[in-house]
Design brief:
Radius of gyration of chain A: 24 Å
Order of helices and strands of chain A: EEEHEEHEHHHEHEHEEHEEEHEH
Number of helices of chain B: 10
Largest interface: A-B, 33 and 28 residues
Mean pLDDT of chain B: 90
Largest sheet of chain A: 6 strands, mixed
Order of helices and strands of chain B: HHHHHHHHHH
Shape of chain A: elongated
Number of strands of chain A: 14
Strand content of chain B: under 5%
Oligomer: heterodimer
Number of domains of chain B: 1
Mean pLDDT of chain A: 86
Number of helices of chain A: 10
Helix content of chain A: 25-40%
Strand content of chain A: 25-35%
Structural class of chain A: alpha/beta
Low-confidence stretches of chain B: none
Strand order of the largest sheet of chain A: 6-7-8-3-9-10
Distance between the termini of chain A: 44 Å
Number of strands of chain B: 0
CATH class of the largest domain in chain A: Alpha Beta
Amino acid sequence: MDLGRGQFLKQEQWSGDVTQPILEIANLTKKYPGGLTALDDVDLTVHKGEIFALLGPNGAGKTTLIGAVCGLVRPSGGTIRAFGHDLATNWRSARARIGLVPQELSTDMFEQVQRAVAYSRGLFGLPADPARIEEILRSLSLWDKRKEQIRALSGGMKRRVLIAKALAHEPDLLFLDEPTAGVDVELRRDMWKLIGEMRERGVTIILTTHYIEEAEEMADRVGIIRNGKILMVDDKASMMRRLGSTEAVIEMKQPLTDIPDALSKYPLTLTAGGIHLRYRGGDGSGLGRAEVAQVTRHLAISGIEYVGIDIRDSSLEDIFVGLVEESA
Amino acid sequence: MGFNLRSTWAIYTRELMRALRTAFQSILAPVLTTSLYFIVFGAAIGGRMPDLGGVSYGAFIVPGLLLLTLLSESTSNASFGIYMPRFTGTIYELLSAPVGVAETLVGFVGAAATKSLILAAIILTTALLFVDYTIAHPILAIGYIMLVAASFSLFGFILGIWADSFEKLGIIPQLILLPLTFLGGTFYSIDMLPEPWRTAALFNPIVYLVNGLRWTFYGASDVNIWVSFGLTLGFLAICVTIITIIFKTGWRLRA
């Protein structure tokens, strides 16, 4: 199945099952001895089969949140349940089903690729399965490099090895911490394809990314985090409906001195000495574009000439930047 | 889910493979160094030294030299084994896996101890080329060597977690363990020391280790053999307790 980016993971394809929470985080807090609060009363639920993107600026708490779930960070408070198991008491059962691809290229550089991946499978308690390891290595274009030491690989290939290691024990929940940071376009496309294939198999994926475009393209739901607090969690369409807007600039043939009375109900302003009639409104669901169309229609009927229209809807990035700046 | 045997095996075999990858440094180098001791102190100088308790000098130093290698190699293997994943960041995989303190210890410490036992076998075989010795209690000797290898591998594991630099990794083995071993009766009987040095030597825990092993070889010891066994077992128990606490609290392992 070809899952090229163009046909990849559109919102309507979301297969997440809201009746089956796979990860439930409640009141999670992490305070470091130095006083830094990396996670501040975080609540988050991720459902089976969904792709969840965690967006946030550097130092927001994304990696700490992943670390708390994966056992790398000791929470100061709160509870984490994965697959119905409380990680504080029944961590073995839960961790056996969780995979992690870390942000850093942390591997045993002197180990052979195939051995490193087989080790990961064994470490998670699964019997050796050379056929499965071969399948994973082939899917990541690593089969030809299987006998090479990891240190001999390029940065992109090393990241593939990390992904292969995380997939070796066939996790049901996979964390990808900045999976495409610093990788080339080809690997990024391969990653997206791979994530799509994993989703097809029912793997739930939680990823952090700096590429908002990536989150827009891949994620069923997006969480925005800043200063250890989750600012918003929603699916992209709902987020756009709630916080989206449309901005249009209508360039007039002649400067206007006032906004016509008939247009007073629309969120319009005059700028650039009356040359620009600026619209900013809507709700991200198409209302803005419809209103701009009504405005232009009215201008035409009223004989007010304009020479151009520049219109754009706000992106997830605009919403992200707005939310993050608002909470700063 | 209890003890995860597959995880343990994965850690154990990987650590052994790592030792094989660096066979020159981890196996050949200590064997060569110990052989030089046998040549210099056993074959060359030993021939001019009087027997000690009816044992030729060359044979007398065999248990001490074996212990010297066991202590340093067990400590450095285990400390390096856990320090390197911390240093390179690959520890994330171990921490995120469904393995606990038992699997981790048996895997890492078991591999370090196994390597020490392989080294011990090679050294004892090599020693036969230079000095003539016998082992009075071979089963007890094997048991004691295993006990010492396990104890100091555990100790090394603690060092590997405690150290936050390569310098720290070497401080205790080189500045504390090595001098104590040299002063612990490796090359002499503490009965040869004048007072107060003889009494002072009794405060050196390595004296009890050397004499414990020497007793299994020749049936004679400068100290009470049960004190030697008791101290070694106590040391092992303390190390296991410390490591259990480390894993429970996540000290130096989890942020």
